[in-house]
């Protein structure tokens, strides 16, 4: 049964000349799971928001959105923090039902059932300020599910979460779909677990639907490389595979063994050792207050000028705390950090915290008047007269980076620079960082994103429980790690050695040649 | 028009309570200033709350008011670097100026209630709620015709509300210790708290001068961008 | 069910009664009862440690009263040619005890009425008010966290000099103004979420986790009976007490005793409640 039908929908924002959506036509069956893919700015959010009356953006709209029997639609957006509407978990859950005017008894029953389904009963009485990002987003999902919607819209729900919380959230969504046959439309950069699962994949490019078919059939329609594809698809695409293999890690394994020789089993792993030390930390101990436990417990770390060093580790391992020590915002109570640079700068996770003025130009001028060159380099010249709060995630990040670079740092620290950024944006950051590296700046990155780390770093250190437990080149770390590693390494370790990125595999495949 | 109606309502509530106070005093042959003034302060808030309930229905406006309250309460924490400087009154005035009477009253009174949740509730909570609320309301009412756009008037209003706040809290102190109003004692309290009052007024004026422009600009941007408090 | 676990309605009735009766009377017996119970309730229920400080407040109010007020017949001595009377001294101490009792009850109120119960009351006055209240509470930790983020970012960029006073001012004001932007812009998203969850619907209800139980009915019934008794006897003029010109006490007959008993019962309710609860708990545990 058809539940939603979009006919020739075209939408234009008042302030822009280009259409945000162009002649979009989609038909959604009841019980469908639809994955919406596309680069940032391709119109995914706009499309989802147009489906809900109270959230529909203001602008010129033509075309039709037809529903079957006016279904109840709910949305979970990307920022977990801003969707929390009350101070306690239970009140967030009850909020929707209160609005619908339900009486206390039915609210009590529905809230209890939902809390149980999403495994929130353990935090039911907690204050929302004390929840982790993953718990918050799960709560947001539960808070709309109490009202029993007919269609659930998810707008990049995991983009602000760490990989483990993201996987947990996606699992919950999948369980919701399989157990209740709920109609779900999800736009997501993390397509790995969803591509095969979705009934249909809808590819959006510059506001137009490029393809609308099942995951396997979408493959042939892929044109640009701007879309975040699952790892397997990226590889097949790069190697121009004709025969269809399953879109999964095991599929890639089979594909590699069946098609490629492995006479040259590994790539060389050279490191240049001629660089000057920029930062050296020796047996650092740190805690925030006298009576709290140690966050850092004898941490050793060093990085060099002209190198990119990445700190990996889960939540609460002390990565962000260590950054505060490097930036001299806190001091260790034991151990020493020797800083050989002249200026250390930090790009915080919350990039908007860098701005204090209403116009980007004024903000940059606060540091230095000579910002023209840097703006050109980072491609933000056109944004100079905008309010920093009107910028998109990627733009804001580049603008913040520009402001920080104006302080002329020779040690640059970045806290989760790829959070919420799509693959196109990641490529832009990568280019910028490699360029800065060439200028001799020491770059330290804290990240959850193993694939990005493997591509960009010269050295990696793995932080666990306040200590560095292993360090080395990305090839050493990721090819020896069994679980905390990249898809490329997982998919190719049976066949090749030291292949930790997509490019590594492709290069070895090309060198080895097919059977 | 609604604002005037609300004022009349709250004034009539006050008159009613004063009458009640006098009759109760006669009946008990005892002056119950404390009890009556507490009731008066509490009940004078009610017409404003009902006006808020009726007039403000936009989710965005409600959330923005909640944010202004949070900023007022957290203001003490942010300005810890500069001791004795608390931006509360200045922020309440700015909220009233840009977001109108309902938002001004709500921000003022709930800020008092919430910040006393941390620093200790007492009979004074009720007076603070009424006084800060009325300061926010007055700022909104005066700025309806743009009176406070004039810098001099703004400074005068800020100084005036600082003085009024201080004087009313001194009335509370006198009444609460005495249960009756002794003028000599009141004057003694006022003299005693004079240095604090001056510091308070001066810091308020500095805050309003420093914050009114940049924050007003931001609030105005929000107001026009999302069409709030029209 | 401990005192603080009772339904907000029972609790608010109790606090209004205790505070109102304490405020309108000057009878020393009633005041001392209220003071004693307020002190003990705070000590046991809220585990307050600085309750002793208020004794100084009583002393100050007690001693300053005769300096300003010269009524009364019994002159103790002359201070700056003004009469310093026993009656004024006693009156001062009694009003000191009264205000401190009121403060004690308010303190207990603040301890018992955490945000969930305050929210319940506000919701009864106006549902929207309670939404604003709980949202403000939800934003306070967020605002503090954002303030820290902005502050750290600005410090690490050295955009303002922290060591001079004017630099400090500039830093703090700029952090604050950035904080206003960040908080409000994020709040608009929150508002949209609320709207998509039907916030602007007309017939909004207020759900709370509180449920009215038998214990609440008993507690309320006792409070109401006490209230009726106390009001009746107070209005019939029993136990009125005059300080000036000389102290005159009318309440020492049986009726007054009923009044005192009723008032003592009212003020001791929180402690009686928790005490019986502890006993019952011990008894139930011994059965296991």
Features:
heterotrimer, B: 230 residues, mainly alpha, Arp2/3 complex 21 kDa subunit ARPC3, 8 helices, globular, C: 288 residues, 2 domains, two-stranded antiparallel sheet, 9 helices, 5% strand, extended
C-alpha end-to-end distance of chain C: 19 Å
State which percent range the strand residues of chain C make up: under 5%
Q: Main beta sheet of chain B: strand number and arrangement?
A: none
- SSE order of chain C, one letter for each helix or strand: HHHEEHHHHHEEH
Write down the overall geometry of chain C.
Answer: extended
- Arithmetic mean pLDDT of chain B: 82
Number of structural units classed as domains of chain B? 1
**Radius of gyration of chain B (Å):** 18 Å
Secondary structure category of chain C: mainly alpha
Helix/strand/pairing category of chain B? mainly alpha
- Indicate how many domains the architecture of chain C comprises: 2
Outline of chain B: globular
Instruction: Tally the helices of chain B.
Output: 8
Task: Tell me what you see in this structure.
The complex is a heterotrimer of chains A (515), B (230) and C (288). Chain A is α/β, with parallel strands linked by helices and 515 residues long. Chain A has 2 domains: 2-223, P-loop containing nucleotide triphosphate hydrolases (Rossmann fold, 3-Layer(aba) Sandwich), CATH 3.40.50; 277-509, P-loop containing nucleotide triphosphate hydrolases (Rossmann fold, 3-Layer(aba) Sandwich), CATH 3.40.50.300. Chain A is built from 17 helices and 18 strands. Chain A has helices at residues 44-50, 89-99, 104-117, 133-145, 163-180, 215-218, 231-239, 249-259, 319-326, 360-365, 372-378, 393-405, 423-438, 450-456, 474-480, 487-492, 502-512; strands at residues 2-12, 21-29, 33-37, 60-67, 73-76, 151-155, 183-187, 200-205, 208-213, 277-286, 296-304, 308-312, 334-339, 344-347, 411-415, 442-447, 459-464, 467-472. In chain A, helix 2 (89-99) packs parallel to helix 4 and helix 4 (133-145) runs parallel beside helix 5. The mean pLDDT of chain A is 87. Chain B is mostly helical. Chain B has one domain (58-226): Orthogonal Bundle (Arp2/3 complex 21 kDa subunit ARPC3). Chain B has 8 helices and no strands. In chain B, helix 1 packs antiparallel against helix 2, helix 4 (88-119) runs antiparallel to helix 5 (123-142) and helix 6 crosses helix 8. Chain B is globular, with a radius of gyration of 18 Å. The mean pLDDT of chain B is 82. Chain C has 288 residues and is mainly alpha-helical. Chain C folds into 2 domains: 3-119 and 216-287, no CATH class; 138-196, no CATH class. Chain C has helices spanning 8-24, 28-46, 53-68, 86-112, 115-125, 127-157, 165-196, 214-235, 254-287; strands spanning 75-79, 82-85, 241-242, 248-249. In chain C, the strands form 2 sheets. Chain C has a two-stranded antiparallel sheet. Chain C is extended, with a radius of gyration of 26 Å. The relative contact order of chain C is 0.15. The chains are: A alpha/beta (515), B mainly alpha (230), C mainly alpha (288). Chains in contact: A-B, A-C, B-C. At the B-C interface, helix 1, helix 2, helix 3, helix 4 and helix 6 of B face helix 1, helix 3, helix 4, helix 5 and helix 6 of C.
């Amino acid at each position: 049964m058809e539940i939603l039908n979009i006919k020739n929908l075209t939408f234009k924002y008042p302030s822009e000349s280009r259409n945000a959506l162009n002649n979009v036509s989609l038909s959604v069956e009841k019980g469908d799971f639809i994955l919406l893919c596309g680069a940032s700015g391709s119109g995914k959010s706009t499309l989802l928001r147009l489906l809900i009356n109270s959230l529909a953006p203001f602008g010129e709209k033509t075309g039709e959105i037809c529903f079957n029997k006016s279904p109840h639609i709910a949305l979970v957006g990307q920022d977990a923090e801003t969707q929390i509407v009350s101070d306690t978990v239970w009140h967030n859950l009850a909020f929707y039902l209160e609005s619908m005017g339900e009486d206390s008894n039915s609210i009590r029953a529905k809230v209890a059932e939902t809390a149980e389904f999403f495994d929130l009963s353990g935090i039911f009485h907690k204050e929302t300020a004390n929840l982790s990002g993953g718990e918050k987003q799960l709560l947001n999902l539960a808070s709309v599910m109490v009202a029993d919607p007919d269609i659930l819209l998810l707008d990049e729900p995991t983009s602000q979460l760490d990989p483990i919380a993201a996987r947990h959230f996606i699992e919950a969504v999948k369980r919701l779909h399989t157990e209740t046959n709920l109609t779900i439309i999800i736009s997501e950069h993390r397509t790995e677990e969803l591509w095969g699962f979705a009934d249909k994949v809808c590819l959006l490019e510059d506001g137009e639907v490029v393809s609308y078919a099942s995951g396997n059939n979408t493959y042939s329609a892929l044109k640009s490389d701007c879309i975040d594809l699952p790892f397997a698809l990226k590889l097949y695409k790069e190697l121009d595979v004709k025969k269809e293999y399953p879109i999964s890690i095991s599929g890639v394994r089979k594909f590699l063994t069946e098609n490629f020789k492995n006479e040259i089993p590994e790539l060389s792993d050279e490191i240049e050792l001629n660089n000057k030390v920029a930062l050296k930390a020796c047996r650092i101990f740190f805690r925030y207050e006298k009576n709290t436990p140690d966050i850092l417990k004898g941490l050793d770390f060093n990085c060099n000028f002209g190198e990119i060093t990445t700190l990996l580790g889960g939540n609460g391992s002390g990565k962000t705390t260590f950054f505060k020590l490097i930036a001299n915002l806190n001091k260790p109570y034991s151990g020493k950090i020797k800083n050989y640079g002249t200026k250390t700068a930090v790009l915080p996770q919350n990039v908007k915290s860098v701005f204090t003025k209403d116009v980007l130009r004024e903000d940059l001028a606060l540091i230095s008047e000579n910002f023209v060159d840097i703006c050109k380099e980072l491609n933000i010249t056109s944004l100079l007269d905008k309010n920093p709060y009107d910028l998109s995630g990627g733009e804001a990040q580049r603008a913040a980076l520009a402001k920080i670079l104006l302080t002329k740092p020779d040690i640059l620290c970045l806290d989760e620079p790829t959070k919420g950024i799509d693959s196109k944006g990641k490529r832009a950051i990568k280019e910028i960082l490699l360029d800065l590296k060439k200028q001799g700046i020491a770059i330290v990155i804290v990240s959850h994103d193993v694939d990005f780390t493997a591509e960009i770093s010269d050295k990696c250190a793995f932080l666990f429980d306040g200590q560095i437990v292993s360090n080395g080149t990305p090839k050493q770390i990721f090819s020896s790690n069994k679980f905390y590693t990249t898809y490329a390494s997982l998919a190719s370790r049976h066949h090749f050695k030291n292949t930790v990125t997509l490019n590594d595999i492709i290069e070895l495949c090309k060198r080895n040649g097919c059977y | 028009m609604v604002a005037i109606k609300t004022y009349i309502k709250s004034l009539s509530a006050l008159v009613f309570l004063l009458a009640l106070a006098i009759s109760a005093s006669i009946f008990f042959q005892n002056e119950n200033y404390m009890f009556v003034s507490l009731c008066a302060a509490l009940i004078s808030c009610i017409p404003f709350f009902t006006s808020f309930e009726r007039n403000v229905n936009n989710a965005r406006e409600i959330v923005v008011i909640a944010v202004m309250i949070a900023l007022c309460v957290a203001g003490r924490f942010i300005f810890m670097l500069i001791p004795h400087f608390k931006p509360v009154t200045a922020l309440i005035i700015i909220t009233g100026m840009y977001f109108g009477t309902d938002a001004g009253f709500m921000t003022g009174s709930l800020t008092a209630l919430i910040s006393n949740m941390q620093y200790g509730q007492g009979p004074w909570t009720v007076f603070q709620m009424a006084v800060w609320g009325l300061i926010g309301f007055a700022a909104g009412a005066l700025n309806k015709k743009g009176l406070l756009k004039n810098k001099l008037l703004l400074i005068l209003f800020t100084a005036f509300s600082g003085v009024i706040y201080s004087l009313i809290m001194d009335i509370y102190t006198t009444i609460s210790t005495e249960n009756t109003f002794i003028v000599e004692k009141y004057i003694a309290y006022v003299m005693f708290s004079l240095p604090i009052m001056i510091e308070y007024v001066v810091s308020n004026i500095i805050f309003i001068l420093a914050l009114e422009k940049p924050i007003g600009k931001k609030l105005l941007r929000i107001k026009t961008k999302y069409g709030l408090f029209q | 069910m401990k005192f603080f676990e009772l339904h907000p309605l029972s609790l608010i009735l109790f606090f209004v009664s205790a505070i109102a009766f304490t405020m309108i009377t000057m009878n020393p017996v009633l005041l001392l009862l209220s003071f004693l119970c307020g002190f003990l309730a705070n000590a046991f229920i809220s585990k307050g440690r600085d309750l002793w400080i208020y004794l100084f407040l009583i002393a100050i109010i007690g001693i300053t009263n005769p300096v300003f007020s010269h009524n009364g017949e019994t002159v103790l001595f002359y201070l700056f040619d003004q009469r310093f009377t026993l009656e004024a001294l006693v009156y001062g101490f009694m009003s000191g005890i009264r205000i401190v009792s009121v403060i004690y009850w308010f303190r207990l109120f603040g301890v018992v009425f955490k945000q969930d119960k305050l929210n319940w009351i506000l919701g009864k006055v106006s549902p929207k008010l309670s939404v604003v209240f709980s949202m403000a509470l939800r934003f306070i930790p967020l605002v503090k966290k954002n303030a820290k983020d902005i502050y750290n970012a600005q410090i690490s960029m050295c955009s303002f000099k922290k060591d001079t006073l004017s630099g400090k001012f500039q830093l703090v004001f700029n952090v604050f103004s950035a904080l206003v932007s960040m908080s409000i812009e994020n709040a608009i998203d929150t508002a949209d979420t609320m709207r998509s969850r039907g916030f602007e619907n007309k017939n909004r209800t207020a759900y709370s986790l509180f449920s009215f139980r038998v214990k609440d009915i008993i507690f309320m019934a006792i409070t109401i009976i006490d209230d009726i008794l106390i009001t009746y006897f107070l209005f019939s003029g029993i136990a009125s007490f005059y300080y000036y010109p000389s102290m005159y006490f009318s309440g020492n007959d049986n009726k007054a005793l009923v009044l005192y008993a009723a008032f003592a019962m009212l003020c001791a309710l929180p402690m009686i409640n928790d005490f019986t609860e502890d006993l019952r708990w011990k008894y139930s545990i011994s059965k296991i």
